[in-house]
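Researcher: Quick test of sequence recovery. Tokens follow.
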């Protein structure tokens, strides 16, 4: 029986990952600060992942085939993880993000491959931004520059779906503003983006935990949509026509430049993602 440790995994697709791993026969240990109870049949370790001594003490002498880190946001967290799990884990799987490409000026219709951001080249370089995206880039870099613990970074696209489990409110933002007749702030023009469906991203993470590949892999459906096309889909489900405006704080899925992702490496590794058109109408209908 495989031993898998999930850090985070308390909500949204992370919790679905924990349930799928458990149902697939793995022995799962969930690490969080106690903000949510573990699902039945899952060992629960309460610890602050930023407190190295407390995390190591809470894990005791446990060892794992795979650690799946859902909440790795900063390089300091990656350094703690390497010290705590080095020698007790066979592989480290980080849930990263498409936002690592936000500094790349891509061309619509030519999705970006993993090589557009080389994490191994980041150490020592000047930061190219701050906040969430740069934190993820630098966390990946910490994992990429070491060779003691095999790692992979799943660069997830923007995730849609999940019904009541979706705490982000991003798709609901559009439905609510259209229903109320309020303007939606967008870039001019707004670039298209790649997306992933809630259930599929959970299944892909579980699949990735069972593999032995290393390095980054893009995780997204095939196909792209921009914010105006997304609103047009909402209209087809009965909402009033969207009103658009420009402003300093664009809405969640409006992007000023293109950085959609190419998922061909996942296919070469053995996983074929769905097409966006196969599930987006359903998810939009659920949001309405």
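Model:
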């Amino acid at each position: 029986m495989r031993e898998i440790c999930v850090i985070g995994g308390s909500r949204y697709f992370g919790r679905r990952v924990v349930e799928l791993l458990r149902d697939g026969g793995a022995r799962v240990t969930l690490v969080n600060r106690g903000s949510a109870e573990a699902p039945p049949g899952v060992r629960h370790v309460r610890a602050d992942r930023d407190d190295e001594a407390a995390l190591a003490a809470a894990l005791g002498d446990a060892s794992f085939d795979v650690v799946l880190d859902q909440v790795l946001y900063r390089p300091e967290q990656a350094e703690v993880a390497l010290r705590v799990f080095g020698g007790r884990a066979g592989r480290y799987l980080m849930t990263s993000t498409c936002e690592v490409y936000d500094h790349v000026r891509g061309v619509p219709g030519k999705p970006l491959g993993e090589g557009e951001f080389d994490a191994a080249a980041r150490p020592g370089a000047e930061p190219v931004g701050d906040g969430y995206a740069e934190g993820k880039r630098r966390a990946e870099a910490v994992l990429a520059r070491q060779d003691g613990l095999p790692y992979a970074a799943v660069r997830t696209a923007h995730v849609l779906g999940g019904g009541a489990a979706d705490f982000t409110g991003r798709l609901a933002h559009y439905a609510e503003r259209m229903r109320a007749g309020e303007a939606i702030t967008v870039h001019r023009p707004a670039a298209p983006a790649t997306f992933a469906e809630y259930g599929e991203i959970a299944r892909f993470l579980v699949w990735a935990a069972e593999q032995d590949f290393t390095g980054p892999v893009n995780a997204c459906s095939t196909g792209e949509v921009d914010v105006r096309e997304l609103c047009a889909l909402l209209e087809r489900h009965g909402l009033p026509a969207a009103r658009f405006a420009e402003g300093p704080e664009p809405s969640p899925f409006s992007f000023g430049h293109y950085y959609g992702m190419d998922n061909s490496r996942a296919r070469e590794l053995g996983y074929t993602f769905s097409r966006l058109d196969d599930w987006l109408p359903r998810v939009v209908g659920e949001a309405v």
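The mean pLDDT is 94.
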